[in-house]
Amino acid sequence: MKRVLVWLVSTATAVVLLFGYRTSLSGPMTTATQPLAGSAGTSSGGANTVTGPAVDTRWGAVQVQITLDGGKITAVTVPRYPDGNRKDEQINARALPILVQETLQAQSADIDTVSGATVTSEGYVESLQAALDQAGR
Amino acid sequence: MTPEAGRRRPLDAGVRGVAIGLLWAGLALVTYWWAAGGGIGDLGGWESGLNSLGRLTGLLGSDLLLVQVLLMARLPVLERAFGQDRLIAVHRLTGFTSFNLVLAHLVLITWGYAAGDLTRFPSQLWELVIDYPAMLLALAGTACLVLTVVTSIRAARAKLRYESWHLLHLYGYLGVGLVLPHQLWTGQEFLTSTAATVYWWSLWAVALVAVLVWRLGLPLWRNARHRLRVTSVVPEDDDVVSVYLTGQDLGRMPALAGQFFGWRFLNRAGWTRANPYSLSAAPDGRSLRITVRGLGDGSTALREMRPGTPVLFEGPFGRLTDRARTRRKVALVGAGVGVAPLRALAEGLGYGPGEAVLLHRFARRPLFAAEFGALVRERGLHVVDLPGHRRSAGSWLGDGVPVDDLSALRHLVPDIAERDVYVCGPAPWAESVRRAASAAGVPADRVHVEEFRW
């Protein structure tokens, strides 16, 4: 009887703690059908958009488009990324927002690869660097 | 045979057919959606093949996981058509199968995400669990399933008390529940089409409702209605006691002679443990009686139980009843305390003189000797006592029987092939009776067996 209670309480505690973990109630990953985008601040009239080349990776092409306003990267979209199957969709749905965020923070292509999405990260950085070069930065 | 029982037989067979059809259709549908989503084409590549197989095993595994919850939800329609012992056997099979599929799913998907590279498997697994939606929950759910399955492997099960095993087994529900969110958020197979969404949510809803209504609600309601109490505890033999129970409105309890209940006696710490015991007298609308051999801890404690002790019950269960009967003539074959439900049947079944025969195996003394004597005199029951210890592990007879199992059965009950055979006793013994009956020409659907394990 006492043992049953101990088990019951420990189990309930464990379940509550499990649900406290950040992924447990996060909801689905946004498997974006739209190109992924991120932006920092509103872009004024002087903004121009530069599209990097589509870089072929093992799993498919990655292409980055950036919006520059007075030399500052204000927005990043990823019109093309590997989404041929559900696994790629999931991996990139997780990785791309991180890459976009890093780009906006670093304001350069000098960003870390996202673990578990090395291939996409490398393609992303290559396309981003080319876009920045093209913009003369 | 009552006319009612005759009508129910084809109905029960129909329900069995439909249930098996639905199970098959569900698995076929899930496989179809997998194939329609390019599952077969993906098998061409190494990495995509791993992912594709991982998806298929996951889908079939979760389908069967819900099916085996349904099988144990005490659905009246399934209980009546299959009988709980058969449901348990199917539950065991689907349970182990779904577990193996879930493990295969886990390995294949992780391996596939690691691009088919085994050296990356551990880091990939870590990442999946830490970063992907609800995957930590899924891992915890899998751990619950592992616990449930490992304790149910025969070797482990034999070492556990029934009561402990049963409580541990409830972790299965937690496991099934904890793996749901990752199916919605990471797998997203539920959402491939409207039909798939409807199918999966319906299956989940049916499983949940079935458990809430029939596993929890109905027993609570019946207990509130009948409020069973112990009236007396009577020793039958050295280690066998009969417990007499009474309650309110027992005439409306749908119990049949030959059925069993799960019992919880609220006399001491034992209320957490439900023990399955058969009725040993036909229910008369005023009282119930069970007869128990002191094997488990709970059984021993019954001896010291005071009159007035409240009792919780779950049931009735079992198909060792008039419902399964197809013939006028019956043979009841029981061993040890397994004769208890047969004692109820000998009282509750309708039969004329000579139409019912009881083969009663016991080691030293027969149980219910006086009561069977009365049934012999008043109802024309034919009783054959078969004393002695079992002569060998494969035989259903005691030592001192000069002929083989089949010849003995034919000699004792020459018209055995024309009878329904009701068997209750330890599992291996019951199996040897089944073999002898089958060899004597009794079709399988006329041998009705209730095994007991404790």
UniProtKB/TrEMBL annotation, chain A:
<dbReference type="InterPro" id="IPR007329">
    <property type="entry name" value="FMN-bd"/>
</dbReference>
<dbReference type="GO" id="GO:0010181">
    <property type="term" value="F:FMN binding"/>
</dbReference>
<dbReference type="Pfam" id="PF04205">
    <property type="entry name" value="FMN_bind"/>
</dbReference>
<feature type="domain" description="FMN-binding">
    <location>
        <begin position="57"/>
        <end position="135"/>
    </location>
</feature>
<dbReference type="GO" id="GO:0016020">
    <property type="term" value="C:membrane"/>
</dbReference>
<protein>
    <submittedName>
        <fullName>Uncharacterized protein, contains FMN-binding domain</fullName>
    </submittedName>
</protein>
TrEMBL record, chain B:
<dbReference type="GO" id="GO:0016491">
    <property type="term" value="F:oxidoreductase activity"/>
</dbReference>
<feature type="domain" description="FAD-binding FR-type">
    <location>
        <begin position="223"/>
        <end position="323"/>
    </location>
</feature>
<feature type="transmembrane region" description="Helical">
    <location>
        <begin position="17"/>
        <end position="36"/>
    </location>
</feature>
<dbReference type="InterPro" id="IPR039261">
    <property type="entry name" value="FNR_nucleotide-bd"/>
</dbReference>
<keyword id="KW-0812">Transmembrane</keyword>
<dbReference type="InterPro" id="IPR017938">
    <property type="entry name" value="Riboflavin_synthase-like_b-brl"/>
</dbReference>
<keyword id="KW-0472">Membrane</keyword>
<dbReference type="GO" id="GO:0050660">
    <property type="term" value="F:flavin adenine dinucleotide binding"/>
</dbReference>
<dbReference type="GO" id="GO:0051537">
    <property type="term" value="F:2 iron, 2 sulfur cluster binding"/>
</dbReference>
<dbReference type="InterPro" id="IPR017927">
    <property type="entry name" value="FAD-bd_FR_type"/>
</dbReference>
<dbReference type="GO" id="GO:0046872">
    <property type="term" value="F:metal ion binding"/>
</dbReference>
<feature type="transmembrane region" description="Helical">
    <location>
        <begin position="134"/>
        <end position="156"/>
    </location>
</feature>
<keyword id="KW-0001">2Fe-2S</keyword>
<keyword id="KW-0411">Iron-sulfur</keyword>
<dbReference type="InterPro" id="IPR050415">
    <property type="entry name" value="MRET"/>
</dbReference>
<keyword id="KW-0408">Iron</keyword>
<keyword id="KW-0274">FAD</keyword>
<dbReference type="Pfam" id="PF01794">
    <property type="entry name" value="Ferric_reduct"/>
</dbReference>
<feature type="transmembrane region" description="Helical">
    <location>
        <begin position="93"/>
        <end position="114"/>
    </location>
</feature>
<keyword id="KW-0479">Metal-binding</keyword>
<dbReference type="GO" id="GO:0016020">
    <property type="term" value="C:membrane"/>
</dbReference>
<feature type="transmembrane region" description="Helical">
    <location>
        <begin position="168"/>
        <end position="186"/>
    </location>
</feature>
